[in-house]
Write a structure and sequence with these properties.
Elements lengths: L3 H6 L8 H12 L7 E5 L6 E5 L8 H17 L6 E3 L2 E2 L5 H6 L1 H21 L9 E9 L2 E9 L21
Antiparallel strand pairs: 1-2, 3-6, 4-6, 5-6
């Protein structure tokens, strides 16, 4: 199975911020001889197991796998027994450079705008006629930048729709 580290070894990226460059570099080196190693010796048979050190970068899928699993389990235990909907908000590809240069401001605006849009549409009796809760998770993937708000409604058992509000409200392109 191809891993992110395998892909990173064959890619030369330009225009990375210092934090992005550090994460990229550390993920490429994770659990390789470049980061050193440690050995464990069996007290009974004397066999030695040598393991390469991990990068411990918070963005590394190898290093954060168990932490991620624990976090997901904790979050799953907090879910309410109601319908949840997964919605996706995207930005036009032409804005990627602008967003990358103004991440804090524009991601904040995107998250607030998406949440406000969903809450306003959901309040409208024509669509859902309910007050919803919104949890936003920002995902970036390659050159495509998109945000995925995950919605929950704690007060109302929401009927199953093919789409959250019954149909697409707006789709550009």
């Amino acid at each position: 199975m191809t891993e992110l580290q395998d892909i990173f070894r064959h890619v030369k990226l330009k225009s990375l911020s210092p934090d992005q460059a550090k994460a990229f570099h550390m993920i490429r080196l994770c659990r390789t001889s470049a980061l050193g190693s440690h050995a464990q010796v069996c007290q009974e048979c004397g066999s030695t197991d040598v393991s390469f050190n991990s990068c411990r970068n918070r963005h590394c899928p190898k290093c954060q796998h168990s932490v991620q699993e624990e976090w997901v389990e904790t979050q799953m235990s907090k879910l309410l027994p109601v319908g949840y909907f997964h919605t996706v908000f995207t930005i036009p590809q032409e804005l990627n450079i602008l967003v990358l240069q103004n991440q804090r401001l524009l991601y904040s605006l995107l998250i607030k705008s998406a949440g406000h849009t969903l809450m306003e549409l959901a309040k409208d009796p024509k669509f859902l006629g309910a007050t919803i809760g919104v949890t936003s998770v920002l995902h970036t993937c390659y050159s495509d930048i998109f945000i995925i708000p995950i919605l929950s409604n704690t007060k109302l058992k929401v009927p199953r729709y093919q789409y959250l509000l019954g149909y697409f409200i707006y789709k550009s392109g």
